Amino acid sequence: MPVWSHSRLQTYEDCPLKYKSQYIDCLKPREENVEAFLGIRVHETLAKLFRDLMMARMPSVDDLLAQFRRSWQENWNDAIRITKAEYDSGDYLRVGERCISNFYRRNHPFDDATTLAIEQRLDFALDDEGRYRVQGYVDRIARRPDGAYEIHDYKTSQHLPSQEEIDSDRQLALYEIGLRQRWRDVNEVRLIWHYVALDETMASQRAPEELDSLQEAVIALIDEIDAALEFPPRESSLCEWCGYQEHCPRRQHLVQIKQLPVDEQNLEDGVRLVDAYAELAGRRDEVKDELESLKQKIIAYAAGRGFDVLFGSAHRLTLTRRSKLTLPGQGEPARDALEHILRERGVWDEVSQLSGSRLLRALESGELDEPLRRAVLERAPTHETVLLRLSRLKEPGN
Ligand code: SF4
Question: Boundaries of each PD-(D/E)XK endonuclease-like domain copy (predicted)?
Fold first, then answer.
């Protein structure tokens, strides 16, 4: 039985395919990205700060910065990917230094609470039987003189969430559940996020009923993940930072192109096909509006003179007029009323049509019993159609 974590649940919510790659297929992520590297270095430096404080030693901010730079240099390697091409490792190093200085300046002399644990592993159950186990590592747990416990989390992100997002954050609320199981005297708990790159601190507290509903929601999500048979890719801005792009049908081609020498990338077969397609599609889009306006002029010209066929110098143009009903949409009352009248008058069977998309939906949702399903597929076998949708890349190579 797996032990769940906030990041495991979050990965499934962000992208089921990434979840499968990471947690079911246990594939190794391709490379570390600089944001994760920066986060690790800042976390280890702040952990060292509080370890020193627990040993009654007060390091200076310069000591911490020196340690941060040392660790950065010792651990940096060329495989670390810098996603934002306009920046380099020096820029990220400076962001890290700012994180350390901000935190130090804002919290010095660090005596408003007693640190109880640093990078503490919490392993706890969400149910009485222990079937839903969750684990997490808390950056720091502290206790205030008034007895309130604090769960601290360091964030190096440059995005400051809203208070609403903080109040519904799952990660620290889960840690609170774990904390309450770990120690008996826990009464008040404060959840605190240090957005160290932005020099901002945010806090939240949870009512017992909020923790109960969180517990229920997480159990429901775990059940959903356990029952999942398919893990489709879900593209988002997070793909740029995904370490499983080479296993993902949405990004594999891009990964392969980027592995080619720059001057060969535009010669790759797939790139050439897409470029040719884009060029033709662009021309089609260019003339579409022009064609439509010309069509309207032709219709008006022919209608005004009662012509059905017009002649050009080398072509003839035949105008065929057909009436078309504008049916009310699915679910609209007028559609139900229309169907009702047609059924009542006994003409429904003559005028209603088989709808391929509705039949396919019924097949896929399992609402048809097996004999009916087989009978349908025998007479209407499925076939695959591929729609192409062209969209512009935001930046070259993106
Ligand atoms: S690249 Fe994007 S869509 Fe593909 S697995 Fe990763 S997160 Fe999912």
Answer: 4-249
- What number of CA atoms fall less than 13 Å from residue 213's CA on the CB side? 6
Do residues 96 and 68 touch, judged by C-beta distance below 8 A? yes
| 175 plus 130 within the same structural domain | yes
CA–centroid distance, 248 to ligand 1, in Å, is 6
- Tens digit of each residue's pLDDT (9 = 90 or more) over 200-232: 999 999 999 999 999 999 999 999 999 999 999
Site to probe by mutation for ligand 1, drawn from 10, 11, 247, 250 as the one with most ligand atoms within 8 Å of Cβ, is 250
Which of 320, 324, 356, 352 is CA-nearest to residue 338?
A: 352
Q: Which ligand 1 atom minimizes the distance to the CA of 233?
A: 3
Same domain? For 12 and 94 the reply is yes
Residues 233 and 272 in one domain: no
Atom of ligand 1 nearest to the CA of 18: 5
- Tell me the CA–centroid distance for residue 245 and ligand 1, in Å: 6
Cα atoms in the Cβ-side hemisphere of radius 13 Å centred on 264: 7
pTM: 0.80
Residues 169/176, Cβ–Cβ less than 8 Å:
no
Tokens of 346: 């006994």
